[in-house]
Amino acid sequence: MTARIGVVTFPGSLDDRDTQRAIRLAGAEPVALWHKDKDLHQVDAVVLPGGFSYGDYLRAGAISRFSPVMETVIEQARAGLPVLGICNGFQILTEAHLLPGGMLGNDHLHFICRDQKLRVENADTAWTVDYEQGQEIHIPLKNMDGRYVADQYTLDKLEAEGRVAFRYLDFNPNGSLNDIAGITNEAGNVVGLMPHPEHATEPLIGTGRTDGLPFFTSILKKLVTA
Amino acid sequence: MARVVVDVMLKPEILDPQGQAVQRALPRLGFEGISDVRQGKRFELEVDGPVDEAALARIHDLAESFLANTVIEDFTVRVDEVAEAAK
Known about the structure:
Chain B: Keywords: ATP-binding, Cytoplasm, Ligase, Nucleotide-binding, Purine biosynthesis. Chain B: InterPro entries: PurS, PurS-like_sf. Chain B: Part of the FGAM synthase complex composed of 1 PurL, 1 PurQ and 2 PurS subunits. The structure holds 2 protein chains of 2 kinds. Chain A contains 5 helices and 11 strands; from the N terminus they run βαββαβαββββαβββα. Chain A is α/β, with parallel strands linked by helices. Chain A has a 9-stranded mixed β-sheet, sandwiched between helices. Chain A has a two-stranded antiparallel ribbon with strand order 5-8. In chain A, strand 1 (about 5-10), helix 1 (about 15-25) and strand 2 (about 30-35) form a beta-alpha-beta unit. Chain A starts with a strand and ends with a helix. Chain B has a 3-stranded antiparallel β-sheet. The chains are: A alpha/beta, B alpha+beta. The interface between A and B is medium-sized, with 20 and 12 residues.
C-alpha cells in the first residue's frame, strides 16, 4: 500500500491538478480534498497548492486560512501531519501562523514568471530528504506576492536553526529578505516555498528537468519507511 | 447603526513599494516637499446596534485575527465620529 497525499482545492486554486499528477508520478496516491470539507479522509500528508484562492482578496491566503479544511489541517499539522505549501499554499501557511513571517507583493510590483535557481538549504525536512544538502535546483516561479518578510529576530532564529529550507540563487525575484524562497517549521513537517516543484516533474514540460520530483518522492519515502 | 473604522498599515520597518511608487510620481505632478508615502487599507464597518465597549472589543479581535496580519501590519480601531454626528 502506498501513501495517500491530499491536495486541497480552494476557490481559485490553479495547480491542484498538476500537484496531484506530480504525486502520482512519484508513486503515491493523490487524494482530492475540498476546502469546505473538514474531513481529511485519512490522508498521510497534505499539499496546499498554488493559485489565487479567494482572488488574494484582503491578503494572499488570508481568507482560505479560515476555511473548514484548514481547521483540521492546522490542528493536525501541529500534531505532526506533513504539510507542504506551494506558492499560494505557502501564503496560507504564513497566514495560519504554521510558518513564521509573512508574504507581501513583489518589491518590483510586477507579476513574475521564470525558471528559478534555488539552493536546498535543509535536506532533513519531510519534503526534502531526497535532495542533497546544498543541492542547486531549477524550478519554475510564478507569483505576484512572493516577498518573504519577517522581523530581524525571526530571521536570525530561522537562520540559526537551519530553517531556511530554500534560497534564491543568482537573482532575488521578489525582494524576499535573506533571499528566502522557502522555510520549514521547527519539527520539519511543515514546509512552504514560493517556487513550484510540481511544475518540474517531467522532462517534457516546464524547465525540461525533473528537479521538483524529489519533493514528492521525499514525502513518500518518509511515509513508507515511517 | 454606527460606523467603526479599522485602519491597517504595514509595520514601519517593512518596505512599502506601492507607497514609494506613489511618492516618486509626486514631483512629476507638481507636488514638491513630500519625502515619504506609505499606503494602507481602511475598512469601514457598519455595525448594527450600539457601539459599546463590548462591540469595540469584538471588532478589535476581528481586526487582530483577520483584517490585519499582525506579523506584518499594525492596525487601529475607532468609531467614525463624523458619520455619527451627521445622523
